[in-house]
């Protein structure tokens, strides 16, 4: 049998490749990733390549005018890694962190998503306590950084109540087609030229309805999504 470790391959998080993954040895990457794990109370989802992509996109977006937004925050794994890597206190932007903080909204899943088992998976995840509902814990996680806006509310309904202006970085990670598409459409005109839109689960295995919904929304906006082997999708405005 092919020994992935001996061959120096990367085989995690539905991604298998023999290509160079030297970022794993970068102390700045390691510190950022460790901060993400700390946000998740020590739980490591082993999604290093996805975090590498998110850190790269956030770094590029830091040079673009506008604020950062994440729709789908949970314990704050990816956003905490980003803030650690960028040295958020010195970035001079706001980071809007939007989540129900009560888990996914089952009524938002389409018939196709229900048929694909997404609703059942969400229910099981909620029953296992996989979604953070303790807002005090969330606030404590981000307490070390300024310019953080934690928003407890449902996308898309909550968005117009927030005074979000120009956006440089939009991370969409709600694992449900309706709010993900709605978030892209809502923020599109607010995205600065060069802004990054990163979908965490665009091409994730078994999430075909989500891929189709994002593709349709992107096409109607005159954009095209770069499908990444990590399962993420990227648009540069
Ligand atoms: C996969 S988790 C997000 C993971 C997070 N980005 C991280 O770095 O670990 C998905 C989150 O989306 C949230 N969510 C799902 N549907 C939502 C909606 N319509 N509005 C706001 N949050 C939603 C859930 O509560 C859950 O916390």
Describe this structure in words.
- 35% of the residues lie in helices and 18% in strands.
- With 237 residues, the protein is of the alpha/beta class.
- Strands 5-4-3-6-7-9-8 form a 7-stranded mixed sheet, with helices on both faces. Strands 1-2 form a two-stranded antiparallel ribbon.
- Strand 6, helix 7 and strand 7 (191-199) form a beta-alpha-beta unit.
- Helix 2 packs across helix 3.
- The mean pLDDT is 96.
- The site of S-adenosylmethionine has 21 residues, from helix 3 and strand 4.
Strand composition percent: 15-25%
Helix count, DSSP H or I runs of 4 or more residues: 8
Average of pLDDT: 96
- The low-confidence parts are none
For the largest sheet, list the strands in their spatial order: 5-4-3-6-7-9-8
Largest sheet: 7 strands, mixed
Order of helices and strands: EEHHEHEHHHEEHEHEE
User: What would you call the structural class?
Assistant: alpha/beta
Distance between the termini: 44 Å
Which ligands does the model contain, each kind named once?
Answer: S-adenosylmethionine
User: What value does the Rg take, in angstroms?
Assistant: 17 Å
Helices, strands, pairings?
Blueprint: E1 10-12, E2 15-17, H1 27-39, H2 48-61, E3 67-71, H3 77-86, E4 95-99, H4 111-115, H5 118-127, H6 135-142, E5 148-152, E6 167-172, H7 177-187, E7 191-199, H8 208-220, E8 226-227, E9 233-236
Parallel strand pairs: 3-4, 3-6, 4-5, 6-7
Antiparallel strand pairs: 1-2, 7-9, 8-9
Bound molecules: S-adenosylmethionine.
The site of S-adenosylmethionine has 21 residues, from helix 3 and strand 4.
